[in-house]
Design goal:
Largest sheet: 7 strands, mixed
Number of strands: 29
Strand content: 15-25%
CATH architecture of one domain: 3-Layer(aba) Sandwich
Shape: globular
Strand order of the largest sheet: 5-4-17-16-18-19-20
Number of helices: 20
Bound molecules: 5'-O-[(S)-butoxy(hydroxy)phosphoryl]adenosine
Amino acid sequence: MATETQQHAIDTMLLEERRYEAAPDFARQANAQPEIYERDWQEFWETEGRERVTWFEPFTELYEWNPPYAKWYLGGKLNVCFNCVDRHVEAGRGGQVAYYWEGEPEGERREIRFADLQRDVVRFANALKGLGVRKGTPVAIYMGMVPELPVAMLACTRLGAPHTVVFGGFSAESLADRMNDMECEVLITQDEGWRAGKTVPLKRNADEAVANASTVKKVVTLRRTGNDVPFDESRDVWWHEAVDGQSADAESCPCEPMDSEDLLYLLYTSGTTAKPKGIIHTTAGYLVGVAATHHYIFDVKPDSVYWCAADVGWVTGHSYIVYGPLCNGTTGVLYEGVPNYPNPERWWEIIERYKVDILYTAPTAIRSHMKWGPEHAQKHDLSSLRLLGSVGEPINPEAWVWYREHIGGDRTPVVDTWWQTETGMILITPLPGITTLKPGSATKPFPGVDAAVYSENGQTVGPGGGGYLVLKRPWPAMLRGIYKDDERYRETYWSKYEDVYFAGDGARVDEDGDFWLLGRVDDVMNVSGHRISTIEIESALVDHKKVAEAAVCGRKDERTGQAIVAYVTLKGGDEGSIDMLEELRNHVGTKIGPIAKPANIVFTPELPKTRSGKIMRRLLRDVAENRALGDTTTLADPTVVEEIKERAATEAPEE
Ligand code: WT7
């Protein structure tokens, strides 16, 4: 034991002792029952494979593992669109709502039933066929959160055409890079999107991108805002004209039988640094993985109204707005805009209107709602909610408890789900009704998943020590590689430990076997020989009643190696003061210990975040060390970091 703890790679100090047992009435009706953890992992995935999806031809072998490459459900034939749409209509559930769509401009609403979805997908797939799209044709999709976005994805999968969805907040250059890498032949976009009451020039960006992506031959444009946009008759087609006169009969465009391992999509991930990687996801393992996890983790029922408030442009949207929920025949909510348009009540209005029972969102959104105050939620009836979920970053215990109390009526389980674009599906998570919840902990590996925390030299770190999160056996939805870059695939995920997947995250496991995520290992600080994760100090800061958000990083220090710098946003627009600074330093000192006290604190109205809401600590390090800023192109709002630079320069430094 002693030798094990000596080997830990990250020190952990913050202890969170609140516990939430599963309520007996929830436990009784839960999709996941305790025996699920006792099942043999191969039997588990075998059964899920047979029962969760419909096969045109059954698989003959569960998996094959030639490290670092896996294959799952070998020999099977199936189609994702058939599983997500047609089979529900054939089973008589065509009248059930697939999506309640709510546009950002108030009053714009649509109900799309499974039969409507089938009609729209078939017509659009026929239109794509007319443009030359066949099995294997790479297609790019650059749209906002409109119903036609899932329609476009499903139409591709119906034809067997792999897609890459590029988040509508990305620039023309990012779009061009991705289309060039995948050699896309068709691009699907829209005239403009809506965001915070303003239009986003999607078609203009698309044109700029296509000018630098010579493989793209056709651009299909959906009319959304109706404003004038440039249109090139020789290359561009309007969505409504392309589908005009196309048959809506499913037989007119049968679902292409795909091999289990055929490419389903690429999704590019840049993380917080470097050139984007084209993450490869294939057909069967991905579909089984996302459908199974969606069923058990969110405890989805036939009459559920499930809302994952992410963007379809991220993996969360691919797996848990489109493919997982539709495969399970679930009714979902799709909302086009930002959470505070026209005011911070918008989300709670939506939950009340559709009687949403499951809400899945990110810590950054929860902290925004905390900052705006609980009064907005209080004005609405949120009693339909049964379960809350979180994903994307470690969730600070204070935000977790706020979410449960103010949104979940101190009644709902909160599932903190750890996964990545690369993992395709959730891998570490509570199962509601079984797991005793701990605010800030993603708790246990999902059944069938083997996760561990390793030291620098590859030994398992015992309770109390922090280290590197690894996955010790393949799982169905795992990435099949990085597109056209085998070397980078091996180097990034498989070079630190032999035949074990290195996630790049720090973690610790406690006495109960529960996992606590500690953030990206690149963000770990070294203060006087202690390896400290940023998340624990941030959580201690957010624990203070005046703090809305906090980000922490290390800067070089002659005496201690690194010194801790904190960037803090106070509630209610408070500007901060020297007294406040001292109060916060002491607060961290009491919560964690003197070593964790930030050397200085910069008060700032906003923190620099990626477009998916992750804090970019790398840029905060540049500011703290007075360096020129590194790559800022993945920032959601590039002006934020300039503002922080000014504040950091005027702030009185410590001691
Ligand atoms: C990284 C993956 C997973 C879909 C959205 C993000 C961080 C994600 C958690 C969590 C702590 C988390 C990790 C991970 N992360 N979920 N519940 N607790 N950290 O996908 O953009 O590929 O990011 O997000 O650092 O490696 P992504």
